[in-house]
């Protein structure tokens, strides 16, 4: 018996899976949110050494990726970690301020004591 391609195999170019998937903006937004939350959770595993070797630099990479995707929790955590500079994370007040400002811009209510992020010396 011959396959779809006439040679006994399947012609993948004709399969529904090979066609482009068109997502609505609402679907894209939901997928981005889910992905960023997953990245945040992976970052925390590397930060705390849960299931993986504790690796703060890897954790920060995941947090930055999620933060750039718009994940509010990642932005807040980046601001906190960079402003404190502990657990193998280099203190960087300018970058911390950037992440806090991004979080505030998205409606973060965890703003107590963060007036310093608007000072000129912390602006890029």
From TrEMBL:
Which PANTHER family does UniProt cross-reference here?
A: ACTIVATOR OF C KINASE PROTEIN 1-RELATED (PTHR43628), CHITIN SYNTHASE REGULATORY FACTOR 2-RELATED (PTHR43628:SF1)
Top-level taxonomic group: Eukaryota
GO process terms (BP)? negative regulation of G2/M transition of mitotic cell cycle
User: What is the official name of this protein in its record?
Assistant: HCP-like protein
Q: Name one Pfam family in it.
A: Sel1
Specify the species: Saitozyma podzolica
A Gene Ontology cellular-component term: cell division site
